Amino acid sequence: MIVLVVLKPMPTRSRSRRARKKSGLLTRRVAALIAFILLIVIIVVAYQMVNNESADPNESPVRILLTTSAGDITIELYDDMPITSGNFKNLVEDQAFDGTLFHRVVQNFVIQGGDVSSKGINVPTIPDELPNKHSNVRGSVAMAKTAAPNSATSQFYINLEDNTRLDSDYSVFGRVIVGMDVVDEIGSVITDANDRPLQDVTLIRAELIT
User: Fold this and answer.
1) pTM for the model
2) Quick check: bond before 131 cis, omega within 30?
3) Quick one: which of 6, 89, 114, 167 is 20 to 30 A from 208 by CA?
4) C-alpha span between 134 and 167 (Å, rounded)
C-alpha cells in the first residue's frame, strides 16, 4: 500500500514581509480614522461649551399680558422668530394695540385682533418667517395677513383648535401660557355674517411682563 504525503510549501520570507506591511497599513488607517472621529467629537463639545458660555442664563422668554374686556391672556413669544416676535414686541412697547378690538371671531377656528389702522397707525409689512419653526396648534399665536406673501403688519390671531394646514403660509411666533379659557370665551361670542362680534371685545392694554 502506497501513501502519498503532500507537503505544503513553507511561506517565503517575502510573503511574510508583505503580510506584515499590509497589516501595518491597516493599523495605521484604523488609527487615523479613530483620531479623526476624536477630533470631530472635540470640535462638537468645544462648540457646545462656547454656546453655553455665551448664552445668558438669566435671560427669560418675552411675555406679553393682554388685558381684554373678557379677561387676561398671557402670551410667550418665541425667541427663534426674531422678525415676527420683534415686530409684535415693538407694537406692544409703542402701545399700538391698546384700545383695539378682536374684530374677527370664527368659532372652532381663530380669534383675530391687532388692527391698529383703526387708530390711524400704519405699520410697514414684514417678511414671512417661513418655513415655520412652530405649528398652528391650539393656543398658538400667529400673524394674520392678506393672501399675498410678506403682507403681515400688526394683525394677529390665536388658534382655537389645531389648524396645522396654515403652517405653510402663516408665521407662528408665540403661544398662550395663561388665559386660554379667556380665549375660548372670546371664541364663543355671537358674530355677524362677516365674523365680527356683535358686542365689542376690546384689547384694553398690551404690556410686557417679567
Assistant:
1) 0.73
2) yes
3) 167
4) 8
State residue 23's pLDDT score.
62
Q: 172-178 and 71-77 as β-strands: parallel, antiparallel, unpaired?
A: antiparallel
In sequence order, which residues have a C-beta less than 8 Å from that of residue 57 and are 6 or more positions away? none
Structural domain 63-209, CATH architecture: Beta Barrel (2.40)
Backbone angles phi, psi at 171, to 5 degrees: -75, 120
Domain ranges for the chain, please list them.
15-59, 63-209
SS3 for the chain is: CCCCCCCCCCCCHHHHHHHHHHHHHHHHHHHHHHHHHHHHHHHHHHHHHHHHHHCCCCCCCCEEEEEECCEEEEEEECCCCHHHHHHHHHHHHCCCCCCEECCEEECCCEEEECCHHHHCCCCCCECCCCCCCCCCCCCEEEECCCCCCCCECCCEEEECCCCHHHCCCCCEEEEEEECHHHHHHHHCCCECCCCCECCCCEEEEEEEEC
